[in-house]
Each structure stands twice: as C-alpha cells, then as structure tokens.
Write a structure and sequence with these properties.
Elements: H1 5-9, E1 27-31, H2 39-51, E2 59-63, H3 65-72, H4 84-88, H5 90-94, E3 104-106, E4 109-113, E5 125-130, E6 134-147, E7 158-169, E8 175-180
Parallel strand pairs: 1-8, 2-4
Antiparallel strand pairs: 2-5, 3-4, 5-8, 6-7
Length: about 180
C-alpha cells in the first residue's frame, strides 16, 4: 500500500490535505523523551478506538520502520526474556520482509511501514486509525489536458491531470496517535 505523506502528516495549509497527525479531536498520548512505546501503550490505543465505537477490524497501524523494529525488540522480564510481540502475535512472527507489499500485523491489526511519519527520534509518531471512520472527499472532478503543441518538434505530448482530494474524520476519536517527546 502506497502511503501519501499528506494523508499522514499534512497540515491543511496552503491547499494541502489535513493528515491524521493534524486532525482536530483525535485521541492520543505523548510519551517522554526517548521513550519507546510499550505494549500497554499499544493496547491503550486499541482500547481508545473501541471506546469511541471504532472497529479494530477496519483499523490499521502506521509507523516508521525503525519504530516498528523497536517495538519488536521489547522483551519480557528485565529485557532478557523472549520477545513479547514475536511470541504473542503470530502476525508479526509470520510476517516476511520482502520489500513493498510486506504483510505484517501488530496485535492482530494490519501494520503499514512508512517513512512518511517521523520514526524513533523526538517527535516520532505511531498512528492507529479505523479507516472507516475517515472520509475521502473529491473537491473537483479530475480533468485531463492534452497539449500537443508544447513538444511538437519532438513528437511528444504533454499531459496534465488535475484532481483535488481531502480527508476528514467522521469520528476523530477513531484515530489514535502515540507521540514520542
């Protein structure tokens, strides 16, 4: 799944999309500096969606691959036991890293790696969103312009496609954001 940066982090200024991280009314938590989210933080995110009448069946996680790797390294006990998510989440253990199109699940919810969100550094973000709680709207009908004169001397065409879209939450509490300070 190709993820557009604006869908995740757009600010809504200068005719841009308001992404998940800028939507008003979303739920979430900000953790301390350099704090790796815990399994409890992930479960709290899922609980928040359920409390907002959102569904985990239509939800997805979005996060930077380095944050996903840090989560996968969480161990039981004092950090020397077995990997918690690998052991208890068959979706992660069964995931095969093959590049684009890799399929992972985190706590039985689909996970999509994206470098369009900040990773483990300050301001890192994990997004859990029920995608049925977000509407995609088309502002104008897509239009296609074909220009034959521009490159006529080299037998080429110039195509211009214009389409404007935006996303808005139907239920903003169906989007949960974990931020690292």
């Amino acid at each position: 799944m190709e993820i557009d940066a604006a869908m995740l982090t757009g600010t809504g200024t200068s005719n841009t999309i308001t992404g998940f991280t800028s939507m008003a009314g979303t739920s979430g938590v900000t953790l301390g500096a350099s704090v790796v989210p815990t399994v409890d933080n992930l479960l709290d995110a899922q609980g928040s969606l359920l409390a907002a009448n959102a569904s985990l069946d239509t939800a997805s996680w979005f996060m930077h691959p380095d944050m996903f790797t840090r989560l996968r390294k969480i161990r039981e006990g004092s950090g020397t036991g077995t990997y918690m998510l690998m052991n208890g989440d068959a979706g992660i253990a069964a995931g095969t890293v093959t590049g684009p199109g890799s399929s992972f699940r985190l706590l039985n919810v689909p996970f999509y790696p994206t470098t369009q969100l900040p990773g483990a550094q300050v301001g890192g973000k994990l997004v859990l969103a029920d995608l049925q709680q977000v509407a995609v709207g088309r502002d104008t009908a897509p239009s296609l312009g074909v220009f034959t004169e521009t490159f006529a001397d080299s037998d080429q065409l110039y195509l211009r496609v214009v389409a404007r879209y935006d996303i808005k939450p139907l239920n903003a509490a169906g989007v949960y954001i974990i931020t690292t300070a």
